[in-house]
Amino acid sequence: MDRRSVVSGMVGLGALAGAAPALSHARTPPRGYPRIATEEACSFPEIVAELKKVAATTGTNLDLEMVQAIYGPQAVEVGTSALAGLLDVGAGRIAAMDEAGVDVHLLSLTSPGVQMFSADKAVALAEIANDRMAEAIARYPDRLAGLAAVAPQEPVRAAKEMERAITRLKLNGFVINSHTGNRYLDEPDFWPILEAAEALDRPIYLHPRAPSDGMAGPFRGANLPGWGFGVETGTHVLRLLFAGIFDRFPRLRIVLGHMGEGIHFWEARLDRRYSFSSYAAGYRKLQLRPSEYMKRNIAITTSGQESHNALDYSIRTLGVENVMWAIDYPYEDSRSAVQFMETAPVSHEQKAKIFGENAQRFFHIDIS
Amino acid sequence: MDRRSVVSGMVGLGALAGAAPALSHARTPPRGYPRIATEEACSFPEIVAELKKVAATTGTNLDLEMVQAIYGPQAVEVGTSALAGLLDVGAGRIAAMDEAGVDVHLLSLTSPGVQMFSADKAVALAEIANDRMAEAIARYPDRLAGLAAVAPQEPVRAAKEMERAITRLKLNGFVINSHTGNRYLDEPDFWPILEAAEALDRPIYLHPRAPSDGMAGPFRGANLPGWGFGVETGTHVLRLLFAGIFDRFPRLRIVLGHMGEGIHFWEARLDRRYSFSSYAAGYRKLQLRPSEYMKRNIAITTSGQESHNALDYSIRTLGVENVMWAIDYPYEDSRSAVQFMETAPVSHEQKAKIFGENAQRFFHIDIS
Asked: HSE of A184 in the Cβ direction (CA atoms, 13 Å)?
């Protein structure tokens, strides 16, 4: 996509407002399962306007580099192209989905969401983003679903917005882009958010952002493609696990993209090291082994990690019920992602679960 | 082991000085392959004495916690038990190996090696440790091999000691415990070390230590068992890769323990993100894809990661030639490690490579 796509996308958004649900889409695809992509990024003009202000600031925060690459006056070509795709939640996106054979996008406000804004602004913009997302879904109810933006800066207000997003806006879950102001969700201040997610029975998609300032040192200037995102997000979810969050909120479900950010590759070592509890007096006594929480409280998606070996490993360790398909649109290629999953050496039943059934179950997506 | 083992181990060391090679050990085990354990920790009294001084200091460095747990006045029980095992490079260790059915320990000075000492002290202690290690091996040449300690604080002197360790002491490779003073080996100052390893045709075992100060923030107080070690070491080797170190030193071989610290689980995503080179102007142009360097310049061991699924994944992605067996003695259980590998669902030929042949090739271990 080029810059024109931004315009056509936004025109499309206006032109289609209030349109009837897209009836062109076959409700039961001939292949027997829907292809529901579960980590599909979008944005809205109000958010972009504020991120442009962030991009104009200076600082050493690693997220700022990415924000500047997409929203800054010197945005790189890939960044401006991504921005066009992000802003199009209408006809352009649906056309791209049709072209690649994708049935549903589970939308999420792209990283860093509202998490780099001041608290009041973040709360207000999360509401706006969630309203905009619900409007987009209303136009294409068979083709779009969505994760609500959350402003962890204000946990109690965030919990209220989470309830509104599910009960009023009929969104499907939540997205949080790892740390907020260098703080992690295991801190008790944030527990209202975890409590709300559990009570509403919807997952939190813990999406990457760049390593927090306290972890950023060796990443600065090193250009390790994607690795910092994984380290940040993997560390975050392991902080939750070893802080006992999944004992306190046993039905909380965290979804990790990018083939689980690799944390389940560590399950045997984590189980073993944790069993040496006398090593560090600080290990909290947990009710389950680390690998057991991974199966019970974590689910993963395949976004941007097109490796059949990694998929096979993930199915064997976490179980096929805990693996979902994702593209990471518009940052990754939709056709490649479809091809990856269609050619995966798994059974038809497994493919149906990964492509669609698991997402329908976890996110309460009703595409009939 | 308990405190008595420290004493018996050190007595054993003295009593056996100058003893003939242990002839009790069958040179060709009936099973058809030797079991060579490749990440087996040890220490020596001179090093312990200096680490006790480190343990008496205060600071926020994360390694200090581990040093205090083993060497401090309030050392925990597991720590003192480990210390006993570390110091025994004689009869006690051989007996433990016999009991578990382990043929060879490839010794390495336990983390953080000499890397927390001042430069001059580190250089002197590396030489002492390497001399002591060579003496221990001379007593059991069929049962012990060793990786030389390195003092990266003084790269040129380190390179000279590396040459001495291989050509004079007949050691088998090198061990470096990740960062040194929060600096990483991709910095040009350290290149004499990488050049020496390549010229001497011996791997550098990049062993974990705790996250460097610039990365330690989210790990403080979080007690994530083993995860920080992996993040630190994985980040280190990816810094090498994306800095173009393996273009400059194409025959350099880095060995990673703990099932490769998980970095090869990322190979598809790293390849893909790297291909988006226009995203970040800073990506250095590399001659190969990231996953190709992993196969050419990295080898991994199974230390402390007893997962057949992870082993299978590793063989499929890196190739069986690049996977070696390890225990992580005395921190991990030898019998469990043997059992893990003996029961692995691999062919006899693959088992022979992982248990012994690969280590013989990479580390020039001649156990005949």
From this structure: 26
Question: Tell me, what's the pLDDT at A78?
Answer: 76
Taking the CA of residue B169 and the nearest CA in chain A, the distance in Å comes to: 34
Q: Is the pLDDT of residue A264 over 60?
A: yes
Query: DSSP labels for A183-198?
Result: B-TTSGGGHHHHHHHH
Residue B77 has pLDDT above 80, yes or no: no
Say yes or no: B332 contacts chain A, CB-CB below 8 A. Answer: yes
Through-space distance between the first and last CA atoms of chain A, rounded to whole angstroms: 31
Determine the Cα–Cα distance for residues B216 and A151; give it in Å rounded to an integer. Answer: 26
- pLDDT, average across residues A274-288: 71
Looking at per-residue confidence, does A60 or B26 come out higher?
A: A60
CB B360 within 8 A of CB B36: yes
Whole-model pTM: value is 0.92
- Per-residue tokens: A346: 């798994």
- Whether residue A309 and residue B332 make contact (CB cut-off 8 A), yes or no, is no
Q: E strands along chain A, which residues?
A: 36-42, 104-109, 144-149, 173-176, 204-206, 254-256, 298-301, 323-324
Treating both helix axes as pointing N-terminal to C-terminal, what angle do B77-87 and B3-15 enclose, rounded to 10 degrees?
10
Q: Are B40 and B107 in contact (CB under 8 A)?
A: yes
CB B295 within 8 A of CB B319: yes
What is the SS3 assignment for A160? Answer: helix
For chain B, say whether A307 makes contact (Cβ under 8 Å): yes
Residue of B74, B220, B223 to mutate, testing the A interface (most A Cβ within 10 Å of its Cβ): B223
Put simply, whether B225 touches A (Cβ < 8 Å) is yes
Mean pLDDT rounded to a whole number for chain B: 90
Please state which of the ranges A80-89, B119-128, B296-305 shows the lowest mean pLDDT.
A80-89
The Cα B216–Cα B60 span in angstroms is: 9
Q: Which of A 49-78 lie inside 8 A of B, CB atoms?
A: 65, 69, 76-78
CB contact under 8 A, A280 and B223: yes
Lowest mean pLDDT among A344-348, B11-15, B61-65: B11-15
| Lookup result for tokens 């910095």 | B187
Rounded to the nearest 5 degrees, what angle is found at the Cα of A26, between the Cα atoms of A25 and A32? 140
Which positions of A are annotated as active-site residues? 328
Chain B residues touching A239 at Cβ < 8 A: 218, 222, 224
According to DSSP, residue A283 is labeled: P
Cross-strand bridge partners of residue A109: A42
Residue A112: cis peptide before it, omega within 30 degrees of 0: yes
- Give which of A200, A202, A284 is closest to A238, Cα–Cα: A284
249-288 in chain A: CB under 8 A from chain B: 258-259, 262, 265-270, 272-274, 276, 278-284
The predicted-structure confidence for A296-323, as pLDDT tens digits, reads as follows: 999 999 999 999 999 999 999 999 999 9
Q: Return the pLDDT at A368.
A: 58
Q: What is the mean pLDDT of residues B75-89?
A: 88
